């Protein structure tokens, strides 16, 4: 019998339209050959856990895995995360962990999928199980630029097994989750050396994207792809009506938070952190805005009495810079 094509995270596929009795798995991804047909584009496996602490890594792994599973269905990650947050109503700490793990995983899609291809005979199903393995492997492999791993290896393995155990859709595979992750830890040097020969694993982009980037930017494609695999910096805009950049940097230093000024009103944190933990964020002293976006309003040289139209305002952060200037009413 011909091997079933494997589903990867590289490029969302359209839902399957036909049934295949050979699969018999109603929880599989819509894009997998052999998956059953569906009445809608929604994945059949919704977030459902039992006896797992809401502040545990296991809970966050299941949440991140569910978000990744939604991406497999064709949903963009921000919308997938919003859906998971609505379903789970997680604690702020868990919310941050779910989002962090999901984004880490999407930056490692090529590498972890290649590792799973080597360590499994066929794509783990349902999609939630495949996604959980991708999330756990991502934490074990680490992201480019990380000074240290986000979690200890033994913690990741233990909590991934707990995550599988907590879900009725994955409990049957808890032994397989343990075996796959422990095999990676035993053979990681050999496994990584093998998969890094594949462009999709080396760059963490699907081959079609690598090829298009090469064609469009023949001199810079490697730097572009590498940059995309790093977590973006967290840049803040200081509200000039509430503080100054110098005063805000002193406030951060008093709380042992490293940061530097990179623009007239821009402060970049050395390490990203949840916004609820950023000093002055809730009081409106600072807001999150990229440094480049902060330059748009000053370049207009807006003066008091002028009317400003932001034709692409969502949520009007550039326009807010004008409002926050002390010289303007």
Please, could you describe this protein's structure?
This protein is mainly alpha-helical. Helices cover 47% and strands 4% of the residues. The protein has 2 domains: 1-230, NusB-like (N-utilizing Substance Protein B Homolog, Chain A), CATH 1.10.940; 235-324, 2-Layer Sandwich (Alpha-Beta Plaits). A 4-stranded antiparallel β-sheet has the order 2-3-1-4, with helices on one face. Mean pLDDT is 80; it is low at 1-44.
CATH class of the largest domain: Mainly Alpha
- Mean model confidence by pLDDT: 80
Largest sheet, in brief, is:
4 strands, antiparallel
* Rg calc: 23 Å
Q: How many domain modules?
A: 2
What's the quick description here?
The chain has 329 residues and is mainly alpha-helical. The protein has helices spanning 57-72, 77-88, 92-106, 109-119, 127-141, 153-166, 174-195, 199-203, 207-216, 221-228, 245-254, 291-294, 296-300, 317-324; strands at residues 235-238, 259-261, 266-269, 286-288.
Keywords:
329 residues; mainly alpha; N-utilizing Substance Protein B Homolog, Chain A; Alpha-Beta Plaits; four-stranded antiparallel β-sheet; 14 helices; 47% helix; globular; disordered N terminus
